[in-house]
């Protein structure tokens, strides 16, 4: 098995470290900056004897090295700084992404593509249109991260183990995301049975703002530990064909009443990538929120 990660910055390099420690695939890390992926790859490889993993880690500036990848993860691009919206990254990141897609088509045309670069849903849409790959082979990491944040905040609030929580956040990876308390459970108990609406609303507001909250602390960039964890969880589901269901940004073709857009919905992941979209029964209010989120993604799409 082989996974290539494009972009060796905070998200890319941390994802490579986590992937290496998982010990299930050789990893190529690539960046436009000379020396950066080579140095980080060497550093990670030299942790292998200490941590006990045994996969090859290659750092490169040459796309020939990504040949025959099972999965290519795109993290190349700029990250936001305080005061910026994810959409402010679009102009720069779209041209980077399309260049990366051209190189994937040339050097690893059979690969599954996981996009991470922001604004996530617009970048995923552009990647699908540009590559013309089957929609199961191009999808974005977003909802698993947002659900992880929701779950972490719930666990803190009720003082329980994060392991007992299954959270569900749909919609675009931005301010319009749609956390679903009714589909979020603690040991099988739906959240609204455990918490007052005001408490849930407060946690939802913090979940929606979680990326910006971290940008506000870091000042120089955005989150990467939880994002890389989500990348690796989805990668593992594909490589091991586990059929894990998590929310992710996929191309919708009528599901949830939406067409020709990428948006976060529950997806089953296996060896063919995004193998199946799960259609949840939503209340009218939830459906309106999802469609409003789609509208804000469409505004980004109209700019490409
Ligand atoms: N989908 C999600 O949930 C998340 C998305 N992100 C996004 O991921 C992206 C990366 O974030 P970070 O790693 O923190 O940024 P970073 O600035 O630490 O790393 C980005 C890397 O991309 C490289 N790069 C730029 N242009 C390139 C090109 N043409 N080819 C190859 N490499 C290129 C840069 O040299 C840099 O090393 C950002 O757009 C950020 O907004 C970050 C966290 C979560
Ligand atoms: O906030 C950002 O810009 C990075 C990101 O998408 C996240 O951490 O959710």
UniProtKB/TrEMBL annotation:
Hydrolase in keyword set: no
GO function terms (MF aspect): L-lactate dehydrogenase (NAD+) activity; L-malate dehydrogenase (NAD+) activity
Reaction(s) the record says it catalyses: (S)-malate + NAD(+) = oxaloacetate + NADH + H(+)
GO biological process entries: lactate metabolic process; tricarboxylic acid cycle
Record-annotated Lactate/malate dehydrogenase N-terminal domain positions: 1-140
Plastid is among the record's keywords: no
Listed EC numbers: 1.1.1.37
Catalytic residues in the record: 173 (proton acceptor)
Source superkingdom: Archaea
Ligand binding (substrate): 80, 86, 118, 149
Domain Lactate/malate dehydrogenase C-terminal: 145-298
UniProt-listed Pfam families: Ldh_1_C (PF02866), Ldh_1_N (PF00056)
Keywords linked to the UniProt accession: NAD, Oxidoreductase, Tricarboxylic acid cycle
Signal peptide: none
Positions of NAD(+) binding: 7-12, 31, 93, 116-118
Family statement drawn from the similarity comment of this UniProt entry: Belongs to the LDH/MDH superfamily.
Role noted for this protein: Catalyzes the reversible oxidation of malate to oxaloacetate.
HAMAP family linked to this entry: Malate_dehydrog_3
Protein known as: Malate dehydrogenase
Encoding gene per record: mdh
